[in-house]
Amino acid sequence: MDKLPKVALPVVFILIALVILISKSAVTIGSGEAGVLYKTFGGGVVTDEPPMGEGFHIVAPWNDVFIYEVRQQELFEKMKVLSSNGLEIQIDASAWYQPIAAELGNLHQNLGEGYLDRVIKPAIRSAARSVVGRYTPEQLYSSKRDAIQDEIFEETKKILDKQNVQLNEVLVRDVTLPNTIKDAIERKLKQEQESLEYEFRLVTAKKEAEKVTIEAQGKADANRILSASLTDKILQDKGIDATLELSKSPNSKVVIVGGGEAGLPLILGNN
């Protein structure tokens, strides 16, 4: 009985050592994550093998595993940049990005876990300054927001393409101008709209006038053609035809042949 504690003591030490060893060796990588293995005695960061995937892993206790989120993430940035004429503009933008899983070892070796601050933020800020500097406040306020969004994305993507990071999208959520500039632009846009409406009314009135003129000209031409075609002979023939039709009427009448103008029959009735 006196010897039992002496025998159990090494066993307890062994068990404790095993627990420490297992805790140091066991690595659990969560959903949407990947691990970069660092071999203390084997060359450092492993870059020539795929990163460790989700689930439970056993590694040598003297090695380390650095876990990265490889899902799409969002960066929200408020940036103050200058327009082409030197006015300060505030851009609110979001960038959707994620590390390239297959290149995670290189990312860890070259940039480390702080790659967001080291590469992505400077890249999007530089691209925003470059793109916004090409436009006037009027263009940024009205028609060019989609254009600057696409251009910021393309310029940022060029910077990040060699940094083991994938840029998925850049969204410009808001463009804020100084109040004085914003008010001036809105007044100008309102005046332009009123001018366009006035021009539209002038064009409409001009088209209506042209329509009336064309119709009047058509009637005048028709009357002129008709007048030119009505010779004395034609009028006489028409008068004779009309007289014959009237003579067939049951009403009492007297027809005097050759009694009217130009020798046309003259009809005398009791009405």
UniProtKB/TrEMBL annotation:
SMART domains: PHB
Gene Ontology cellular component annotations, sorted alphabetically: membrane
InterPro entries found in the cross-reference section: Band_7, Band_7/SPFH_dom_sf, Prohibitin
Subcellular location: Membrane
Primary site of residence: membrane
Membrane topology: Single-pass membrane protein
Superkingdom, natural source: Bacteria
Domain Band: 24-189
Record protein name field: Prohibitin family protein
Species name: Maribacter algarum
